[in-house]
Amino acid sequence: MSDSAAVPAPRQYRATLREAGRQLRGLLRHRSIRVGGVLFGSVVLVAILADLIAPFDPNKNDFRAMLAAPDALHPFGTDAFGRDILSRVIHGTRLSLLVGLLVVVATGVLGTVIGTMTGYVRWLDGPVMRVMDGLMAFPGVLLAIALAAALGPSVVNAALALTITFTPRTARIVRGSVLVVREMPYIEAARACGAPHRRIILRHILPNALPPLIVQMTFVFSVSILAEAVLSFMGVGPPPPTPSLGNIIAEGRAYIQEAPWVALTPGVAIALSVLGLNIIGDGLRDSLDPRLRNL
Amino acid sequence: MKSCHESRRPTPLRRLLIAAAALAGIAAAPAGAQTEGGELVLAQGANPPSLDAMTSSSESARNINMNIFESLVTIDENVNPIPMLAKSIEASDDLMTYVFPLREGVKFHNGDEMTAADVKASLERYREFGATRGMLDKVAEIEITGEYEITFRMSEATPTFIEGFASPRAPAVIIPEEEAAKGANEIEIIGTGPYRFVEFVPDSHVTLEKFADYTANEDFDGPTGFGGNKTAYLDKATYRIIPEAGARIAALEAGEVQWADQLPVPAAKRLMSDPEVTVFEARQWAFLTLIMNWKLPPTDDIDFRRAVLYAIEPEEVMAIATEGFYDLNHGWQYPDRTYNAGDIGKEIYQVADIDKAKEFLGQSSYDGEEFQILTDPNYGEHSRAAVVIAEQLKGIGINAVVKQLDWATVLKIRLTDEDWNGWTLMQGLEPFLGPYGIAAKMTGEQPHQRGTDPVLDDGYNRLITGATVEDRQQAFADIQTAVYDLVPQIKIGDVGRMQAGSARLKGFKPFRAPRLNDVWLE
């Protein structure tokens, strides 16, 4: 492998951009990624435009319309406070995606740093990974519930609890990739050329260890949405009246026979979000894994 | 003071109690062909925190304990005090002595006979561990004056003493002397009631079985309230702990349980059309209230509290909090009760006066700090009320936030001066038992609002020591006036409770706890 440092910078960036564009077009050619992208993209769009498209204030009570069945005014009915379910689900979706995004970013950064360091620096591997193993020994959602209960109900604490829960798994995946990549001949060549560790990690190891991480992030995103719903359902998510998909379901469970729309509507929203992300994840795995690429 | 024997002559109080007891007994006498045997399975939402009846004022414990244990006096169907393990209640004219002749031949579940020694030991234990031991504060001495007689010597005449002593909140039950020597929650569960304790598996169930040697009180014609002439028809009763309301309903509909408590109103309304189910509506179940913390800004400011009072629209809060099963009532007593104080506060209560609320807010030192409303999800009425109140207060510029924590944590926090300004609370037994419990929570050493006021203290003192009913009515009216002025608590409205039973369950009437006596399964 040639040392990219020898290539003049502008030409290198143009080449990198061309390569990224080529790879993106390659990914979009994959049917699963297109289908998942449309599905999840729609959910993201709804979340971004929540303030514009929600027909009502999600916290506006109306005791004359408690548990009203779906009609033209409230297409998905109202809850026990007379609040519009559609508006609450739209805003709840925004919050779920926000938590998912926070967890993905935080988990991605922490997991990458820990995984890379433990994979590259041999003496760190044992002690740090044993701590990660310890965290992984707890069932993920239970650990998140315990942490969220200890930290108190809020959006940030829910995201923090999920980050602590999912970081060890991400770190383990990155570490596995780094362990493989660091033994590659081109890494040995870079070392022989006198490249410093930082350059070897950032320019040679990380880019080649990223594909499994990208697939893992789609998984973390979808599991975070589910886990946030679980936390809110258990009462340790954002406090009322903040709408989240989990607490809307929790409020609707007592009326599942009399007003099923209260619990079903956010349930469908969760299912669509997670389905879209999982399909994207499947597509990414197929596209990025050389073993599956030609199957 | 007259001697004990002299005082056996019926006093007005005694005559009243006996007459009320007899009437109530007749009114509640069972009729028809009862079926013996069978097991009744009841579903309730929470574990009993303890089956040591003296130490717990929890509803989930009372539901069970009132069938295992009995006390010297209790309440009848109309909430009047009646003798239970006492044969009668004999008060001296100056109310400085109460003599309780005991019913003879009453057996404990361990087979021993109850005597005055057991009663004294139990009441001395209550003074130490009783959850509402304050009701014995005015009792200077408890004296054994016969094998079957106990005498109270009072430190101060308290006309309302017997009403307080009969309270089932954390009842002053009678247990064997050897058990009474044990610490809180260390006793064997042995009482004199119609059902005896078998087992308690936390988070699962509590099992009771019929006490074959139960000694019914034949001074009464039939059962009444928690007393009277009680008969056990069922062989066994199992209380299943089912926290989820939907699961309780499903268990009832599937026939797995024959009685279920705390049903969501929409589900209860649906069940009304089911011929296999009988729905019981307890209309006057509790007061929904917002307690203020006088020790923490901004609720330490009387003008701020008045702003909150005027900003609350009770109908919206009640309709949503109770799922539509409520009565709007400004009074701190139910409308048909002796101590109802009429229209005091009605004008303030009826509808929100936003202009006035803003005026008070402007006069206060409020500077945008958080108004933290403490609540819990365990009682839906609490959390729903908190959410609606918060939205209403935001409407006048108060930065209201809902602080929702589990019930046990809420109970700890509300005993501190920090971390809460308002607290949504249903008060059930207090208004049910009359004016004393309600007023007691606004005064004394540990008032709900964390602070006291001489006006409230004086009103409470006159309420419990007033010589005549009129004196006490005036005292309670003064308290209600002060409550609308000083705002220690805000009355939101009266809450109902929905319960349901299998159509096979006969003889059941809703009361403050499900009574296993005089009910049977067809």
TrEMBL record, chain A:
It is found in: Cell membrane. One of its GO terms (cellular component) is plasma membrane. It is a multi-pass membrane protein. The chain crosses the membrane at residues 33-54, 95-121, 141-166, 213-236, 261-281. The keyword Transport applies. InterPro entries: BP-dependent_transpt_permease, MetI-like, MetI-like_sf, OppC_N. GO terms for biological process: transmembrane transport. Keywords: Cell membrane, Membrane, Transmembrane, Transmembrane helix, Transport. Residues 97-281 form the ABC transmembrane type-1 domain. Its main location: membrane. PANTHER family: ABC TRANSPORTER PERMEASE PROTEIN, OLIGOPEPTIDE TRANSPORT SYSTEM PERMEASE PROTEIN APPC. Belongs to the binding-protein-dependent transport system permease family. This is ABC transporter permease subunit. It comes from Halovulum marinum.
From TrEMBL, chain B:
InterPro entries: SBP_5, SBP_5_CS, SBP_5_dom. The keyword Signal applies. Keywords: Signal. One of its GO terms (molecular function) is peptide transmembrane transporter activity. Residues 1-33 form the signal peptide. It is found in: Periplasm. Transmembrane segments: none annotated. Residues 81-422 form the Solute-binding protein family domain. The keyword Signal applies. Pfam families: SBP_bac_5 (PF00496). Its main location: periplasm. It comes from the Bacteria. Gene3D superfamilies: Dipeptide-binding Protein, Domain 3, Periplasmic binding protein-like II. One of its GO terms (biological process) is peptide transport. Belongs to the bacterial solute-binding protein 5 family. This is ABC transporter substrate-binding protein. It comes from Halovulum marinum.
